[in-house]
Amino acid sequence: MIKVGDTIPAVTLYEYSEVEGEGCSIGPNPVDVAKASAGKTIALFALPGAFTPTCSAKHVPGYVEGADAFKAAGVDEIWCLSVNDAFVMGAWARDQKTNGKVRMLADGSADFAKATGLTLDLTARGMGLRSNRYSMLVKDGKVAALNVEGPGKFEVSDAGTLLAQAKG
């Protein structure tokens, strides 16, 4: 499992953008994790699935509401990762009103989740291999803080915990 001090996996995630801009098509657009995190402080959180109850009611809204506080604490971007495709993440972004606050990144084949060792096997529940619920503070591509939830828990990966770590 990835740990503090490790470099985050150099994989490609995908993002569906609602609006065209900066030469980007609407989507899905590849996001090279190594390039996108270079020289930046990222508040990254991952969860089992888009539109799922805890993720939609608590996890994402906390980061959306806290976006300004994260910026004030020196965080350049907030990333939400889930093992869903970019179209689902785009629809969820619209539903959660994340535009300009949280980047909703698709880890469709669970490449990032597998590379970090933070997978969650939900095959028995019809959801296949997913990401565990966690948050991490990433500085210039390296893990500065990591908060991994226990099974079925939502206690340490919330926005408040990661914001306190960002304020350091």
Automatic annotation (TrEMBL):
InterPro entries, A to Z: PRX5-like, Redoxin, Thioredoxin-like_sf, Thioredoxin_domain
Domain Thioredoxin residues, every copy: 2-168
Enzyme class: oxidoreductase
Active-site annotation: 55 (cysteine sulfenic acid (-soh) intermediate)
Keywords: Antioxidant, Oxidoreductase, Peroxidase, Redox-active center
Function (record text): Thiol-specific peroxidase that catalyzes the reduction of hydrogen peroxide and organic hydroperoxides to water and alcohols, respectively. Plays a role in cell protection against oxidative stress by detoxifying peroxides.
Identification of the protein by name: Glutathione-dependent peroxiredoxin
Source organism per UniProt: Pseudacidovorax intermedius
